[in-house]
Every structure is written in structure tokens, then in C-alpha cells.
Amino acid sequence: MSVNIRENINAIIKGIQENKILEIFEKYYADDVVMYEKGDSTNRVGKDQNRKAEEAFVNNATIHEAKLLKVLVDGNNTAYEMYMDFTYGGHNIKKTQWAIQQWNNNGLVVKEEFF
Length: 115
Fold this sequence. Notes:
InterPro entries: NTF2-like_dom_sf (IPR032710), SnoaL_5 (IPR046860). Residues 16-115 form the SnoaL-like domain. It comes from Heterostelium pallidum (strain ATCC 26659 / Pp 5 / PN500). This is SnoaL-like domain-containing protein. The chain is α+β, with helices and mostly antiparallel strands. The protein has a single domain (5-114), classed as Nuclear Transport Factor 2, Chain: A, CATH 3.10.450. The protein contains three helices and five strands; from the N terminus they run H-H-E-H-E-E-E-E. The chain has a five-stranded mixed β-sheet with strand order 1-5-4-3-2. The longest helix is centred in the middle third of the chain and has 14 residues, at 47-60. It is globular, with a radius of gyration of 13 Å. 13% of the residues are buried.
């Protein structure tokens, strides 16, 4: 089976836009994934800890808009810039962020950083 990283990152982006964050997390993230928020991976090592963080976001956020601005693919590395408008904990948040992924040879994200 051939892994197509471009198809996988596009599926992740589409899943975010369709508010299917937990489904795409289960499908496209490795068991040993490490995720970073502005350089900090505290409580974000391994799929179980990251699932808790993703569930906390999904359970407290309503996404109004998720607009893809840029996507880059280079081998087993991808990045995308996205504008998001969402309500979290009763507060409306509008922000643009970069997400950078490193993929394993099985087509799963092993490292993701948000800026």
C-alpha cells in the first residue's frame, strides 16, 4: 500500500472544517504522537494524552469557520496555515495559526506543532 501524505493532510484539513476533529485524530495520528503548542509538549506526549486534549477542545468549542490559507507538503513533512473563528468557553476567538506535521512511513502524524 502506498501512503499519500498529501491526501492525508487534505483529509485532516477537511475533517477540521467539517468539525470531525476526533475522527481524524483517531485515523491519522500515531500512538506515539507528540504535539506542541508554541514549543511546549506538556501533557501532549502519546495518543492517550493528546486525545484528552483534543476532546477538551471539541467539548468546549464551537467552530464557526475554518479557512485554509496555505498548505505545504515536502516528503514526510507538511504544514498548513488556517484562519479559525470559534467560540471556546463562551469567548469568541478569531486567529490564524500554522500547524506543522511530521509523518511516519505508515502515513500517521508522529509530531505536530502549532504556532
